[in-house]
Write a structure and sequence with these properties.
Length: 73
């Protein structure tokens, strides 16, 4: 689990074998997909499936919790 903030655009990327769960604690964020866009507001969550190219961004800095499976070492 990670807590982070974004402001502006992030890069297009994908996580081939890992789902990502975004939970917005404050503010709102957006996630661009090649075929559309999702908006996540305070108190909402969204799962990006593994292997899906996406680009998170925010117009104003939100507080976000990112949950992902623990890496196996």
């Amino acid at each position: 689990m990670q807590l982070f903030k974004i402001n502006g655009d992030f890069i297009w990327h994908e996580h081939p074998d890992t789902e990502k769960l975004f939970i917005v604690l404050e503010g709102e964020m957006f996630i661009d997909f090649r075929d559309g866009q999702g908006k996540i507001s305070k108190g909402e969550m969204f799962i990006v499936p593994g292997g899906i190219e996406h680009k998170p961004f925010a117009k104003q800095e939100p507080h976000i919790m990112l949950v992902e499976p623990k890496a196996v070492i």
